[in-house]
Amino acid sequence: MHRVTNGMIAENTLRNISAAAARLAKANEAVASNMKIQLASDDTTVATRAVTYRSYVAQVEQYQDNADLASAWQKSTDSALSSLSEDITSLKELATAAASDTVTDEDRENYATDVQSYLQDIITIMNTDETGSYIFGGYSTGEEPYELVTTDIGDTVTFKGDYLSLGGVISSDMSDEDIVAFFTASTGEIYNSLSEAANDAYTAYTTAQTAADADSTDVILAAKAASALTTYNTISAAVTTYGGTANLTDAATSAESDYVTIKAAIATYGGTTTLSDAADDAQEITDTLTAAITTYSDSTTLTSAANSAYTAYETAQAAADADPTDTGLADTASAALATYNILSAAVTTYGSTATLSEAAEEATVTSDALVSAVTAYGGTTTLTDVAAAAKTTYQTLTSADNANAQSINYNVGFGSEVTVNIEGQDITGEGNSSIFNTIQKLLLALNGDTTYKTATMDSSGNVTVTTNSLDISDLIDELSTALSKVTKAQGTLGVRMNQLSSISDRLDDAYEAYSSLMTDNENIDTAAAATELTSAEYTYEAALAVGAKVISKSLIDYIA
To answer: What region holds the Flagellin N-terminal domain (predicted)?
Structure first.
């Protein structure tokens, strides 16, 4: 039988009071903080989950902040593109009105003033910024990308400090000598030039070759170096063909056009035909179609012209048959047959409803492309081989052009990025296709000019100044092309904005889900916690009451 002493009872009572007090303190702290645990050691499972859920919530919050910034950038871009579209539409309407025969000199002067205002407004639009970052400058967000500058040969627009079109549109009043001097002195200030692309390609090649030389056993490095050399050689050859000062985007477009033309020439002349023979045939077709315009008028369809040519051949042949001794009649019949054969073949090539003028224009393009190809690839090269080389050239130039893209991407999700910017040159155009060139031509036309000058430089550094005809009616189509670029940019932006909207919705759902998990894991059940606090209070009060009775007994009480 165990002996229970007064000390043992007192000790046990104090222990129960202490436990009840600790339970009450814990319950009270839980209700006050609304948290299940105060320290990780209170419940390691809850603590581990808390770290995970809080990390998820913090990530989602950062993604939401990024999405908000991206959305603000896109909205600024959308607003700017809308304003730009309105300005170009107004310019197109103005050009249409100015092309009328009833326009007076005073009208043209007023139109010119309006065009100057639109030019300034377009530059302002293209210098739009979002919280201090210029949205159309690519990676150069810290400075205005567009500027109207005055040069020795007239006003022009620069993009990020370089000329968008160095030899673009120059007043015919400017002397060739001044143009050549300015062009020669400024060749290093051309935006996205072919020479710059060639230099970049050479740098890439030397870097790859250095890496390959450092480890001669690595076949992958050797292959990369060989590929880089091929790229450099292709772009370097393009410099010879299109000129080093040519805009890279323009050169890529020209190269693609040349490839398409040569492919079409294969269908016409055969893949084994040499360039020289194809060029001669193309020139003959061009000459025949041009002569047919004089004979039948430029609006005559190929089918009608071919029928008329056949009738002329029959007449000539009948005359030759009537007098077989007259070689002149025989030659006339032979020439008439050749004309008919060419026109008949042209029906197949260009379509029966094509007019002589349209066919002659396309034939001239083909002839010019083949003549240029003779210079680039040699006259004895077959069309098939030239087509393969031309394809490589345009693909290489296009890849080089795409590699210059300066896309600004925002991380807006777990592995998700969205591009927020559209580069200015993709909207305004660059090189010969710049909207600013069109505006400059429009100003010259409104000033009464019927010609303008352009300048180009070949691979040897020789500058050629060309005088071009200027008709305000032609500018309407150019403005339509400029407007289509803006529309295309708006379409691209719209897709990205829809993508971002969907991502933002998913982020909101993810935030709600992770926040709910975090709350359920860390926060107390208020009703259960209140019940626990009440129970702990009763227990503590009971412990105190029992303790008061037990501990208050002394030895005197037991003696009595």
So the answer is: 7-140
258 and 351, same domain (yes or no):
yes
* Angle at alpha carbon of residue 119, lines to 118 and 122, rounded to 5°: 80
DSSP code per residue over 430-482: -GGG-HHHHHHHHHHHHTT-SEEEEEEE-TTS-EEEEEEE--HHHHHHHHHHH
**What is the reported pTM?**
0.75
In a domain, 45, yes or no: no
Q: How far apart are CA 443 and CA 447, in angstroms?
A: 6
Same domain, 67 and 166: yes
- Could you tell me the two tokens for 303? 């089918």
> Is residue 241 situated within a structural domain?
no
**How much is the pLDDT for 99?**
92
Print the domain residue range for 113: 60-192+407-509
Spatial distance between the Cα atoms of 359 and 301, rounded to a whole number of angstroms: 9
pLDDT digits (tens, 9 = 90+) for 434-451: 999 999 999 999 999 999
Give pLDDT tens digits for 141-185. Answer: 999 999 999 998 989 999 998 888 877 799 999 999 999 999 888
CA-CA-CA-CA torsion for 16, 17, 18, 19, nearest 10 degrees? 50
Residues 423 and 498 in one domain: yes
Q: Which residues contact 66 (CB under 8 A, 6 or more apart)?
A: 410, 411, 412
Domain end (from 403, 431, 460): 403
> What are the pLDDT digits (tens) for 371-421?
888 888 888 999 999 899 989 998 999 898 888 888 999 999 877 889 999
- Judgement on whether residues 390 and 417 belong to the same structural domain of the protein: no
Say if residues 26 and 487 touch (Cβ distance below 8 Å): no
- Cα–Cα distance between 425 and 428 in angstroms, integer? 5
